[in-house]
Amino acid sequence: MSMLDTAKRWARTIKRDTVALWLAARDPRVPWYAKAVSGAVAAYALSPIDLIPDFIPVIGYLDDLLIVPLGIMLAVRLVPAGLMQEFRDEAARRAKPVSRAGLMFMIAVWIAAALVLLWLFWPKPA
């Protein structure tokens, strides 16, 4: 098996698990702490806006290559195994949703960062 095939299979697994975690965050059988982590990870992963934009060289892909997979691994461990398999099966049949909550969160983070930078660098009266 080639390295490209391995990367494609890994990407499909990440996408499926993201949708499965999105489902887990909405299921009443999942413990509250697993719901919280699953919901946060799914919202971030499904958000059309990244914390670190991809156009920034090297670190732009850090969230895609490290933050999201590590978050998924943590959330998957928190969801009971039987339920996680059920969510994975359902996720394989569904289309990938888009997270409006994740989008709003990322917009809020960028606005907060801009306000902090303005406050730090705005000339102060003497």
UniProtKB/TrEMBL annotation:
All residue ranges annotated as the DUF1232 domain in the record: 34-70
Localization per Swiss-Prot or TrEMBL: Endomembrane system
Entry protein name: YkvA family protein
Key word Transmembrane present: yes
InterPro entries: DUF1232
Membrane topology (UniProt): Multi-pass membrane protein
Predominant localisation class: membrane
Spans traversing the lipid bilayer: 101-122
Keywords: Membrane, Transmembrane, Transmembrane helix
